[in-house]
């Protein structure tokens, strides 16, 4: 069994409602190594952070080659399992999504996020059957490699604002069943932090449920008690890092002071982390 197989199997076991996998998402090698060094048992990328770091907007605007290259660099830089956020699969067709998944596995990833958000503003959510076809292609491509890839099927039923609140839960549960039948291993529902609804989701979905959190969201302990098996910060860490850039620059240009830099990492600490032999 290869190291990648071992990491893939280990990654699956980390999704436990009683002790959920908590992820501070990375967007480059430095952030991935910091997350690993802090004790995280896995590293997951944030598609938004990756896109911004490469000079592109989030939302399927980044080139697949560049995204896969970034995944390969992160996977080679850490010793823990790596899950890649591949947005909607970097492909117009299900076959192209399968190609992306094969490439991401070859790059060293053991998990992926695939979302049902659509770039067409008139139809912000892909039809569930169409998305199921894309997930099935991802599953087939993964199985062909022999790597037990964890497919985290993201649904934007809450985040997109496309659905009336009265039907969101029902639609989410229906999509979850469809995606799991197509080969997904877990369901990611960003845009929801209400504890009662989280509990309704975890009760109604027979698979690990991933919740997106950030400032003001319920604690890990509270979400764990409602059955969440995976809790992610998503783009929040990258956004906070970029906020430091703006604050420090504005302070420098206006008052000529540097208080916004307080609490930064020591140069030697980060440089030593980046010198670490793989």
Written account of the structure:
The chain has 278 residues and is of the alpha/beta class. It has one domain (3-242): Alpha-Beta Barrel (TIM Barrel). Helices cover 48% and strands 10% of the residues. It is built from 11 helices and 8 strands. It has helices spanning 3-13, 29-37, 47-53, 64-77, 94-106, 128-145, 165-182, 195-204, 220-225, 236-254, 267-275, and strands at residues 21-23, 43-44, 82-85, 111-115, 150-154, 186-188, 209-212, 230-232. Strands 1-8-7-6-5-4-3-2 form an 8-stranded parallel beta sheet, with helices on both faces. Strand 5 (150-154), helix 7 and strand 6 form a beta-alpha-beta unit. Helix 4 packs parallel to helix 5, helix 5 (94-106) packs parallel to helix 6 (128-145) and helix 6 packs parallel to helix 7. The longest helix has 19 residues, at 236-254. The two termini are 20 Å apart. The model has no long low-confidence stretch (mean pLDDT 95).
Write the SSE topology.
Blueprint: H1 3-13, E1 21-23, H2 29-37, E2 43-44, H3 47-53, H4 64-77, E3 82-85, H5 94-106, E4 111-115, H6 128-145, E5 150-154, H7 165-182, E6 186-188, H8 195-204, E7 209-212, H9 220-225, E8 230-232, H10 236-254, H11 267-275
Parallel strand pairs: 1-8, 2-3, 3-4, 4-5, 5-6, 6-7, 7-8
Helix pairs in contact: 4-5, 5-6, 6-7
What name goes with the CATH superfamily? Answer: Phosphoenolpyruvate-binding domains
Portion in helices: 40-55%
Q: How would a textbook summarize the main sheet?
A: 8 strands, parallel
Unreliable stretches covering 5 or more consecutive residues: none
InterPro entries: ICL/PEPM, Pyrv/PenolPyrv_kinase-like_dom, Pyrv_kinase-like_dom_sf
Protein name: Isocitrate lyase/phosphoenolpyruvate mutase family protein
Organism: Streptomyces liangshanensis
Keywords: Lyase, Pyruvate
